[in-house]
Amino acid sequence: MSWRPPEMPKVQKPPRARPPRKPSIFGRAVAGIAGVAFGFTALAGLARALRDNSGQVSPFASLALLIPAALLVRYALTGEIKLS
User: Fold this and answer.
1) How many domains does the chain have?
2) Residue 1 lies inside a defined structural domain of this protein
3) Structural domain includes residue 71
4) Sequential pLDDT tens for the chain (84 residues)
5) I need a labelling partner for 35 at 20 to 30 A (CA). Which of 50, 69, 78, 80 fits?
6) Domain interval for residue 64
């Protein structure tokens, strides 16, 4: 008889969890520089929008840049990305 019952595969161990790593100083410095650059760009655009008399420049695009600027500066200071 050539038929055999199916065999179960060997039990495998799950991979080990990686230990948590601290963020690099270089990455935090780059994030801080980018956050400050976004912040200055947002403030310059907001000032330009408020000085404009024609009403064609909207301040909302400049205000939208403040969210990533705040996240990047917060990451540079704490080393964690927190959305709240």
Assistant:
1) 1
2) no
3) yes
4) 578 888 888 888 998 999 988 889 999 999 999 999 999 999 999 999 888 888 788 888 889 999 999 999 999 999 988 776
5) 50
6) 25-78
